[in-house]
User: Fold these one by one.
Assistant:
Number 1:
Amino acid sequence: VANPGPRPGEQRKDDALAILGTRHADVWVATASPDGEPYLVPLSLGWIDERIVLVTDPATATVRNLEARPRARVAAGGPPDVVLIDARLEAVTRLEAAAPDLLEAYAAQADWDPRVSGGDLVVLVFAPRRIQVWRESDELAGRTVMRDGRWLV
Amino acid sequence: VANPGPRPGEQRKDDALAILGTRHADVWVATASPDGEPYLVPLSLGWIDERIVLVTDPATATVRNLEARPRARVAAGGPPDVVLIDARLEAVTRLEAAAPDLLEAYAAQADWDPRVSGGDLVVLVFAPRRIQVWRESDELAGRTVMRDGRWLV
């Protein structure tokens, strides 16, 4: 298929929102320890009210890293259709204390329902600060569609 | 398709090597800045003589992070078929100074040939230290197939 050329920003935003709204999708979540050790795991994605919502075990390196520094870089989609999000952790809530509506929305999108899986879990809510969207190298220019938490398109 | 149950370690190693040998595959490469800012980008994979080989622009955050701390966590494959590698940077070489055999092998596997793409590029060679391989949650036990640079299976 011939490359149709770079997408305009508005289309990249729409395409990114479609990827973030995909059901049963995992994202790659990168965090770092206080001394700069990179960590990376796949987690089931919730995208709810323009927030990234993840649910995981509080004993994981991801949660430990976020407690020390509330920053993650999250990759959705997959090469060559890439959505990369620099995100700030807004809240960590024990599953039992999380808002029922949030858990309902998460379970509807993710490929599992943490309310029935049992075990010790926390809900992580992240605000996107920067979002970059590109496919081929001709889309590297103009790849930033959100900066400082505001859509540019 | 019914889950056939967890794969034995030897099969996980074979499956991981098949994923790492895939042509035209990208990997997700997580690094961290010295003050603990996570970074994550997709790069074209070379898997040559049990080393991860990547080629990128020396002005990127990935290279800057690696110069400060020679550690990356690299994800190959995609959920639910995951290969996660904690890797140590062994060498950074300017493209012009890299071994011709290495560049030939890289170009044969990756989806581009850095020798013809032009621009300022460096070749990054990483030794895997730990490799984890799993699909479903029933494979989380036994997911480590390499530790301290040695295959366990």
Number 2:
Amino acid sequence: MKFDHNVEIITIGDELLLGQTIDTNAAFLSRELANAGFRVTRRTTVGDNAENIADAVQDALSCSSVVICTGGLGPTQDDFTKPVVAELFDAPLEVDTRLLDALRERYRLRGIAMPERNICQAEVPRGALVLPNPRGTACGLVLRDADGRICILLPGVPHELRGLALEEVIPFLRRARAGTVGGAIRFRTIRTTGIAESAVAEKIDSILPRIRPLTVAFLPQFAGSDLRITSWGELPEAEVDAALSDAEQQIRSVLQSHIYGTGSDDLAAVIGALLRERGLTITTAESCTGGLIAKRITDHAGSSDYFGTGVVTYANEAKQRLLDVSPQTMAEHGAVSEPTVREMIRGAQRRADAAAAIAVTGIAGPGGGSSDKPVGTVWLAAALHDQVLTRKIVFPGDREEIRERAAQAALALLWKLLKDPVPTQVQVAARIA
Amino acid sequence: MKFDHNVEIITIGDELLLGQTIDTNAAFLSRELANAGFRVTRRTTVGDNAENIADAVQDALSCSSVVICTGGLGPTQDDFTKPVVAELFDAPLEVDTRLLDALRERYRLRGIAMPERNICQAEVPRGALVLPNPRGTACGLVLRDADGRICILLPGVPHELRGLALEEVIPFLRRARAGTVGGAIRFRTIRTTGIAESAVAEKIDSILPRIRPLTVAFLPQFAGSDLRITSWGELPEAEVDAALSDAEQQIRSVLQSHIYGTGSDDLAAVIGALLRERGLTITTAESCTGGLIAKRITDHAGSSDYFGTGVVTYANEAKQRLLDVSPQTMAEHGAVSEPTVREMIRGAQRRADAAAAIAVTGIAGPGGGSSDKPVGTVWLAAALHDQVLTRKIVFPGDREEIRERAAQAALALLWKLLKDPVPTQVQVAARIA
């Protein structure tokens, strides 16, 4: 079989089929393979069952020249992947004494005797390439058959898988591909906020025929949509970049003010970069989002450059004590109201001596709603120096979705203020008030 | 084809194969189906490509009597699922005028004219059952062929999918199954913390042969492992509960002090229940976890009963201002040290007047590590009244994993204190100090 850009992924584990674990490994591998120009054509998930694993691997190898399996490489009683694939490739398992020594050493350093069952972790199918895994006891393995088809086995522990994928698998596949022909899949993603998916679709409808053979896909996100422009390999490699750039420019021309980033840019990181660039700091005052916005800001390494303090003021008493919200304001207007969110953000900004701030107060549910303020009602505020923007949104979804959407919308509000700091009517009104 | 308990799931979308979206729908459906006694035998993910969708659906229907597809039901240019499956089932698409009226009404209520492209949202394959979707514009659809094989189409928007699955699909499948024979899959999960997977495996090794035909699977989690005991349908239905209970008791007898819950119990919810039961409140003081612990506590509805305030003190200045940590302590021992985490937790408890508290300070990386305090070094503290437990852990993994593990380990520390409040040597030492 000719080596091409197509890869299939098989993730293995009853915990996946029972829904106890979300398959983040599949998403990670897919993303990294796509970024490296490979095309994942199908993903399959099967349970810890030797027959099902064998069927899935055989089926995948009949369609694709590269199959990556994750999971089922551990030393416990429900791990079948290695013996099953070894048998499919007619490669008997043999103990690799260097791996065994390294395993024993690993345990010795931790001051533990190696459990005997771990010897199987040093077994390697005859002729397989070993991908060293410094993060765990199960190494990666590459098997290749007479037709050149490749099966790669990786452990399912996320940080081990990620390390092996980036350090070993992608470089290995790039080398294996070197010299082969055919256009690689390439794409760009444009991230928008503050505009509905159907409105995006209408705005770009006339652009679609003009950018063929490139396609555009719509990916609804919390409080925004992503647009992915994809070149599927039809164009000559030399023309792909220009075609993608042209398509991106055409889309930007109609959606400009809603585009906050590209690729996997996170809105909290985009805001962080703007703050760092201007030497500004930010603080957060959260009620219904309960720390989620602070978490999103601090998800990013280096966020200590601009983030020093955040408070979660879930109780009314905390809003008074940490943010100086007046009890009278809350009594008159309620904790979920514009006057309260205004006092929250002002208090947060003043207490933390921060140039920028985000405040949120709302009803995440499932309880606590009323006909006047149903579940999902959230007041958001963003502040930059003396400017304040506030917005009320009633979000759909369950508790988790309401919290995620509220966090994203609050970040979007601050982004708008950072991007376009000229006072608008709303801001002028806010100042007068 | 006889209706059995086996279900296949097909998730559709280029965004999944490109790794831009994590497939939470697949996990949700799998979990709910398993909880209802159905067995998901395989999951497949394909892109927005008519041929690949058709192949996947045909292949799945040749193995299973029920296939559930999610995604590709929208009104945009990359949505193919409905026409493809309609063709497979030889059921032409026809506009359902009642659906169309409801769609127009939906737009009217929002004060928007319905975009013409949305008419396709009212098209239904002839003879298909419509599952109403009050949350969005794409309804669910059930197609059934002459052999009784069922294909269910659901939208990919998570909250729409969840609503349809719980309100329509599971009840429909229960009715379809009623009267059929064969044991359903049933399982119980036991959640542990503070013990390594291999240690769990060794402890329960002798139990495994005694509980056959039940099996036990190991699911490593952040700072702990889950154990899933499964009955795969071999036992008579009347014996399953007793067998699961017996297996659970045997496992509990060897792992007792490490078991914090069952099923999908979240450690933050377990702690919340203990606090509510005793009428206690909790506060958080987070540095490297940046709000994640507060978020986890407030993920749970009703958490305002015991959680009022949390602070994120990322900067040293914030640790002084909000928690009264002395500058001298930080200068002498560093911000990541036992003395600092002790002052953080005491300050948090005093300021919030809370009976319980959690404090965390550490280095989440990728920068900021040293040979003395490498990336991953975290000091955790838990307090209950005048008792304080502290612990230093060097966590493996990347920034995200270190933060997740630190949050879980900090919650585990407080859980230990809540469960076993008798002063241990550590606590006595802490009091003396």
Number 3:
Amino acid sequence: MGLFSKDIKTMDDLFLHGLKDIYYAENQITKALPKMIDKATNRDLTKGLKDHLDETKNQIARLDQVFQKLGEEPKGVQCPAIDGLIKEGDEIAGEVADKEVLDAAIVGAAQSVEHYEIARYGTLIAWAEALGRDDVVRLLTTNLNEEKAADKKLSTVAVRKGVNRKAAS
Amino acid sequence: MGLFSKDIKTMDDLFLHGLKDIYYAENQITKALPKMIDKATNRDLTKGLKDHLDETKNQIARLDQVFQKLGEEPKGVQCPAIDGLIKEGDEIAGEVADKEVLDAAIVGAAQSVEHYEIARYGTLIAWAEALGRDDVVRLLTTNLNEEKAADKKLSTVAVRKGVNRKAAS
């Protein structure tokens, strides 16, 4: 995808670009999550992140199916947004001295990644619907719903399972 | 905030860092929105983005109040996440040849920024509550609710006001 050429001419092109973007993002997330799991201390948090790593692999398999239905090769395109989100999470984790405060920081970083994916899947679903590609909407909706559930679980870990309370005490 | 020093020792430090992060983000957004407004064609979209630019300025004023209540100087800290999100929006906008497809791309980029802010304000509110800083929760909640409303308005512009339909036709 050339930065100075106008390669996106149609909504189909835009949709395919968006798909490559989230494909790249999901693959980057499978690399970032194990590092977050290593740094986390709270058991509910590490379990939640591990579960989401498994989910993410299934989400990539669903995206493979979407590419297949479009007659395209599964392929990512480097996107600065997810790189920035992951970099920000790494930086903040590197700056936190206390383990319990670090857990709270990890939840925050993970939720910002979840919200990026929620935004992207929401947009892709709306675009697929406009293009009449109902055959891929179901797959994308399954991924969207998993991201929303993962975000809620992280809120539960932070608020009800005591991550924030312990960090603040 | 040194990258290789462990400057964040307490939850108060983490909260202040998060506040500086969103302060930087909101200020970057006030610079990015006018460029998006210039590129957009659909009237509902340009109006929505202009309204949100005004809202963003009010949100910064509320963050100034939060800093004041904490006895801190309002200050941003450069954060790769919002830089990446804005860069991604710029790049995609530069690659789209068709004006109506560009409108659809702009909505998608704007919604990814909204979701970043929704994530950040949600985290900051949970941290403020854990710290017993109810005096700043109200201000942050007002900002959060505005971001959620802005995200919904963008969905309406994309789906009901015909941005996606025109882009796909």
Number 4:
Amino acid sequence: MGAVKKQLKPDYDWENCTLVEYGDSDTVKGISKRILIGEEDGATDFFVRYFNVQPGGNSVYEHHPWVHEVFILRGRGTVLLGDTWHDVEEGDVVFIGTDEQHQLKAAPDEYLGFLCVAARP
Amino acid sequence: MGAVKKQLKPDYDWENCTLVEYGDSDTVKGISKRILIGEEDGATDFFVRYFNVQPGGNSVYEHHPWVHEVFILRGRGTVLLGDTWHDVEEGDVVFIGTDEQHQLKAAPDEYLGFLCVAARP
């Protein structure tokens, strides 16, 4: 059955979500994931995750067969699609296609927070 | 290939999105849909739509086999899940399960805007 998960204001955190911290490495820095709608909620085909990137941090530089559907919830940064960087800020929408090389970076002086829907929790 | 769609601030509108206006009837009132990520963007399995509900308006009272994964972007209202109404506001997350009866209503004095991911554009 369905459920409501309240945001734990004033933070970007939510009730009953699973937190995943990524360690820093050559390709990822200062990022965490919260699974807002995952398998435990009853979702099976696509999942809503919230990623928080610290100022100056970045998501993994990667490509894979599944797409990403992204909504920027917080802050400002840049998104790599293929070989082109695009500026993004709160409210913008990003589609990342099948096998498209991609990465998201927060601005040096600001957080970047985004929802990312994918066929992976 | 992927793409960025900028939000057309200060409105809740976006570049290159398809607008669908619903007419008012016994079961739906004061609501419109913007397809933020649809088939034209390359999406095939799940789609990101933004619904804007005017103060006092409501989405369709319905149930169906596909799920909804919802993020409240704007305002305040109530969500029906099965036979129970829940208060929601900006930042909250809602999962609507398979065949679950549901409806979203804006507060009488405030807009309700939400992202809804579904296997329908």
